[in-house]
Amino acid sequence: MKNKIVLLGPPGCGKGTQSKLLVKNKDFYQLSTGDLLRSEVLNEGSEIGKELKKIMEAGQLVPDEYVIDIIVKKVSELKDKNIIFDGFPRNINQAKFLDKSLERVSLNLDCAILFDIDFSVLEDRINKRVKESEDSELRVDDNLETLRNRIKIYKESTLPIVEYYKNKNILSKIDGMSSIDDVYKNILNIIK
Ligand code: AMP
Prior knowledge:
Layout: E1 4-8, H1 15-26, E2 28-32, H2 33-42, H3 47-57, H4 64-78, E3 82-86, H5 92-104, E4 111-116, H6 122-132, H7 144-158, H8 160-167, E5 171-175, H9 180-191
Parallel strand pairs: 1-3, 1-4, 2-3, 4-5
Helix pairs in contact: 2-3, 4-5
The chain binds adenosine monophosphate.
C-alpha cells in the first residue's frame, strides 16, 4: 500500500473528511498543518499564536519557514508510519522541502491525490460546515470573505504544485464532487 500521500485541493473539497476515514480504517496518521497551527492559536499565552491567528483570519498563508519547520520535525518523528499530508504543501517551495525532508530519512512521496471540484460548490460547503459546527469548534477562517481569499491563494500558489507532481509521475485525480463514500473508494483504489 502507498503510505506517504499528499491530498491536494481547495478549502472545503473534503480533504479533512477523507483523511479522517483513512485514519480510522487504514491506520494512517493525518499530518494537517492547519490543525497544528490552530492548536498554537488556541494556546492563549503564545505570541506566535496571536500572529498566526491574524494570518489565518485573513486567509493568507503562514510563512514557509514556520510550516516547513513543523513538517521537518514531524517527518522524522513519524517516518515509520503511514502519513497523509493534509494541507501541506501549499506552494512549490514547500513541495520541494517536503521531498528533501523525506529524502533525508530515505523515503519519498508515493502519490499526490488532487480533488477535482467545481469552485462554485465550495461556498455552500463552508456555509454548511459553519451551521453544523458547535460554537467551540468554529474555525477563525470559516466565513465567506476569508474563504474567497483562500480560494484565490489556492489558485495562485497551490495549483502550480499539480504540474510539479505530474512531472514526477505521482499525480492522481479524483472527482471531488461525488459522494463521500465514492471519493473514499477511489482513494483506496489509488493507494492499494
Ligand atoms: P487548513 O486547515 O489546511 O485549511 O489551513 C487553515 C489555514 O492555516 C490556511 O488558510 C493557512 O492560513 C494556514 N496553513 C495551513 N497549512 C499551511 C501551509 N502548508 N502553509 C501555509 N499556511 C498554512
